[in-house]
Design goal:
The protein is α/β, with parallel strands linked by helices. 50% of the residues lie in helices and 15% in strands.
Length: 271
């Protein structure tokens, strides 16, 4: 995995101009839709149970996000996942809040019994909560006491258990398919000061999964968001940072990926 491969995946997404069906939340829906547009894809944010099967069937990828969960969205998520699985459309589930909500944890556990997502995404706390039913954490932010090595091993076990890929986001993003583990060390603390950047990472994963169903697509999403975060840092405040972030997502150059990419690849036996 290197910057050249990341830039190839980025170009494929632009050339394909894929339709990404996002069942997400009203807190971050605007930045998610604009993020999809910024990297060359097309967003569709439909969530009504009576139309999602039709929308998903026409999409190139599906992104399911559990934030601000409702009965309607839970129903729609299962309908869309069933459609995506039947049609061979890649889909990712972003397990937002499963570490602090029994409802969400139960939903994801049931979901994973019924469907095989292309990828499971969450922050360190959320990924650990899917592995350890007794673990809980307050709020939707990651528990800073969880260590990289421990979460890496947990992510590998989850990927092997569900025969899928896993993305654990944090200061160092962890991506694995159960065999290979990739650490992405791009990003800045200011990304955590904007609501919905985790959701934004999820839809970027959807964009790149539409053209590459390997861990390379998830690495690409992490690298793109992290590098754009680095390029967007400002002392003017969070509003200016967010504007800069959207600008950089839409004009990111191959040379900036080449220069700034910081990744490390390991076999799971090395953990």
């Amino acid at each position: 995995m290197n910057s050249a491969l990341i830039n190839i995946i980025r170009k494929k997404a632009v050339d394909k101009n894929p339709l990404i069906h996002c069942i997400t939340n009203p807190i971050s829906i605007n930045q998610c839709a604009n993020g999809v547009l910024a990297v060359g894809a097309r967003p569709m944010m439909a969530e009504h149970p009576q139309e999602v099967a039709e929308i998903t069937q026409a999409a190139d990828a599906l992104v399911i996000n559990l934030a601000n969960i409702t009965d309607v969205r839970m129903q729609s998520m299962k309908i869309s996942a069933q459609t995506a699985q039947k049609k061979g459309i890649p889909f990712i589930i972003d397990a937002v809040g499963v570490a602090c909500s029994a409802l969400r944890r139960s939903f994801v556990n049931d979901f994973l019994k019924l469907f095989k997502p292309t990828a499971i995404k969450g922050n360190y706390s959320e990924i650990y909560a899917l592995y350890d039913d007794k673990y809980t954490s307050a709020g939707v932010d990651a528990d800073e006491t969880l260590k990289l090595e421990n979460i890496s091993k947990t992510a590998v076990k989850l990927a092997q258990k569900y025969s899928t890929m896993v993305l654990a986001s944090g200061k160092t993003d962890i991506v694995t398919d159960g065999k290979t583990v990739v650490y992405i060390n791009n990003g800045v603390p200011q990304l955590a000061q904007i609501t919905g950047t985790g959701c934004l990472l999820g839809v970027l994963c959807g964009c790149y999964l539409s053209v590459d169903q390997t861990i390379n697509s998830l690495v690409t999403a992490c690298a793109v968001l992290g590098i754009c975060g680095e390029l967007s840092q400002t002392d003017k405040g969070n509003g200016s940072f967010f504007v800069n972030l959207m600008d950089n997502l839409s004009v990111l150059k191959d040379s900036q990926i080449d220069e700034l990419l910081k990744i490390e690849v390991k076999a799971n036996e090395e953990l």
